[in-house]
């Protein structure tokens, strides 16, 4: 294999990285500026996440990864960040309690801007323009000026990521995440929904347990795990110029870490073995995820794992399956068998969003809640019957009361509702109610798998 450097990807073919910046020298100046900016995460934090994912790979923990399809400059607001953080905390409580396992929380946040698009152009009323590619590249407004890639957007995205990271750290460790506050994590707008009622009942049980523990001398003051939480960040490592600029040598280990996020993932459209994205990812020490979908054969998957995780380190690789509810049961078993046969350590996670996107007659991209849940269930069934641990989920979601995905039992979103609060900059997201409902459904299924497993072990 050729020598890896943070820039060795530049010698390989690259998909979905814009090549039409009008001023290439300006892009290069921006990248140089970024190289001098502080890291957004520390290598030690990425190592800790890798360890925690190692526990997931071993079936001892569960991964909850979620956030916007695309962060945007427009929706950047502390309230939005708080709402996302708290709905993930609620989901984590539900999953921890239901599955009886620790939950590793990873946001699609603080850097999730650049988007691969299925078409390089967008046509509206006979007018054709380059597609919107994420706020760190060009603008969403449908005008020729706005669609021109602008390098300055990378600096703005860095600034927004830094401020986001700062607030997330404060939420995670500054008191908000104290388990004594679980009642306060409910969102105003979902008050009165069946999910909120269920969540409140769960909080009461947890409070009773906390009171008991406190009487035994275990308090948030004495036990830091009760007063703070670990919250990690991730995004698709798409714009490799940006990722290269954020990649630094860790002074403790002398190894390279991409300090733009704790975890990076390779998208379904950029995971070619001999292309730039795989080349870049193979050299960094961060935990890496890879989206897998239709068309990926076991042979190729094994080759990718040889390149990305030659030492078969547990926690290094998360495979995020994104097939669609009607395809996952057909494609996943052969891959799961191949991985198991080869003794490869991976985290198996399910993205039930990207294979379930449909377009309504009125032109909205949406995803039906029932299909999303069906894909998660089938994913779990397949892995369980292949003797693998269905270790995680990956959602596009928001804490806002949006109407982007159809269905959900609390306040079912109907087709005619989609237009009322459809705010996403790219794909349709679950709203907080839908996300919490999914967490309850998944916790139930996970709990039953764990009971079965317990019965098998004691038989
Ligand atoms: C995404 O996660 O937003 C995405 C583009 O997914 P995929 O690579 O699986 O299509
Ligand atoms: Co998406």
UniProtKB/TrEMBL annotation:
<keyword id="KW-0808">Transferase</keyword>
<feature type="binding site">
    <location>
        <position position="322"/>
    </location>
    <ligand>
        <name>phosphoenolpyruvate</name>
    </ligand>
</feature>
<protein>
    <recommendedName>
        <fullName>Phospho-2-dehydro-3-deoxyheptonate aldolase</fullName>
        <ecNumber>2.5.1.54</ecNumber>
    </recommendedName>
</protein>
<feature type="binding site">
    <location>
        <position position="354"/>
    </location>
    <ligand>
        <name>Mn(2+)</name>
    </ligand>
</feature>
<feature type="binding site">
    <location>
        <position position="291"/>
    </location>
    <ligand>
        <name>phosphoenolpyruvate</name>
    </ligand>
</feature>
<dbReference type="InterPro" id="IPR013785">
    <property type="entry name" value="Aldolase_TIM"/>
</dbReference>
<dbReference type="Pfam" id="PF01474">
    <property type="entry name" value="DAHP_synth_2"/>
</dbReference>
<keyword id="KW-0170">Cobalt</keyword>
<dbReference type="GO" id="GO:0003849">
    <property type="term" value="F:3-deoxy-7-phosphoheptulonate synthase activity"/>
</dbReference>
<dbReference type="InterPro" id="IPR002480">
    <property type="entry name" value="DAHP_synth_2"/>
</dbReference>
<dbReference type="GO" id="GO:0009073">
    <property type="term" value="P:aromatic amino acid family biosynthetic process"/>
</dbReference>
<keyword id="KW-0464">Manganese</keyword>
<feature type="binding site">
    <location>
        <position position="108"/>
    </location>
    <ligand>
        <name>phosphoenolpyruvate</name>
    </ligand>
</feature>
<feature type="binding site">
    <location>
        <position position="69"/>
    </location>
    <ligand>
        <name>Mn(2+)</name>
    </ligand>
</feature>
<keyword id="KW-0104">Cadmium</keyword>
<feature type="binding site">
    <location>
        <position position="427"/>
    </location>
    <ligand>
        <name>Mn(2+)</name>
    </ligand>
</feature>
<feature type="binding site">
    <location>
        <position position="396"/>
    </location>
    <ligand>
        <name>Mn(2+)</name>
    </ligand>
</feature>
<comment type="similarity">
    <text>Belongs to the class-II DAHP synthase family.</text>
</comment>
């Amino acid at each position: 294999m050729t020598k890896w450097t943070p820039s060795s990807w530049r010698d390989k073919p690259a998909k979905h990285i814009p090549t039409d910046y009008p001023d290439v020298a300006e892009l290069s100046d921006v990248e140089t500026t970024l190289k001098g900016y502080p890291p957004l995460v520390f290598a030690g934090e990425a190592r800790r996440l890798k360890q925690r994912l190692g526990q997931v790979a071993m079936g001892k923990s569960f991964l909850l990864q979620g956030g916007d399809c695309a962060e945007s400059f427009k929706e950047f607001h502390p309230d939005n960040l708080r709402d996302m953080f708290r709905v993930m905390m609620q989901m984590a409580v539900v999953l921890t309690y239901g599955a009886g396992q620790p939950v590793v929380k990873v946001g699609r946040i603080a850097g999730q801007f650049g988007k691969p698009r299925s078409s390089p152009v967008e046509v509206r009323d006979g007018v054709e323009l380059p597609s919107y590619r994420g706020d760190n590249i060009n603008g969403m407004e449908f005008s020729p000026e706005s669609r021109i890639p602008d390098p300055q957007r990378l600096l703005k995205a860095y600034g927004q990521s830094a401020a986001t990271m700062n607030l997330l750290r404060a939420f995670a460790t500054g008191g908000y995440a104290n388990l004594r506050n679980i009642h306060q994590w409910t969102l105003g707008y979902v008050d009165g929904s069946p999910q909120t009622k269920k969540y409140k009942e769960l909080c009461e049980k947890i409070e009773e347990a906390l009171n008991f523990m406190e009487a035994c001398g275990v308090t948030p003051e004495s036990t830091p795990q009760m007063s703070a939480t670990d919250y990690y960040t991730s995004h698709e490592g798409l714009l490799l110029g940006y990722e290269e600029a954020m990649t630094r040598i860790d002074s403790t280990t002398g190894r390279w870490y991409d300090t733009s996020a704790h975890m990076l993932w390779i998208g379904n459209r950029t995971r070619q073995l001999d292309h730039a994205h795989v080349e870049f990812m193979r050299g960094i020490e961060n935990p890496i995820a890879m989206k897998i979908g239709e068309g990926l054969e076991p042979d190729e998957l094994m080759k990718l794992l040889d390149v990305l995780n030659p030492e078969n380190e547990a926690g290094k690789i998360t495979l995020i399956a994104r097939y669609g509810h009607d395809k996952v049961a057909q494609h996943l078993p052969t891959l799961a068998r191949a991985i198991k046969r080869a003794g490869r350590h991976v985290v198996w996670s399910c993205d039930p969003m990207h294979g379930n996107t449909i377009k309504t007659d009125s032109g909205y991209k949406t995803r039906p809640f029932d299909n999303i849940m069906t894909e998660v269930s089938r994913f779990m069934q397949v892995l369980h019957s292949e003797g693998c641990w269905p270790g995680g989920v990956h959602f596009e979601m928001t804490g806002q009361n949006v109407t982007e995905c159809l269905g959900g039992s609390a306040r079912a979103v109907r087709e005619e509702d989609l237009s009322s609060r459809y705010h996403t900059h790219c794909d349709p997201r679950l709203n907080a109610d839908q996300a919490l409902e999914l967490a309850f459904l998944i916790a139930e299924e996970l709990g039953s798998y764990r009971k079965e497993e317990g019965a098998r072990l004691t038989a």
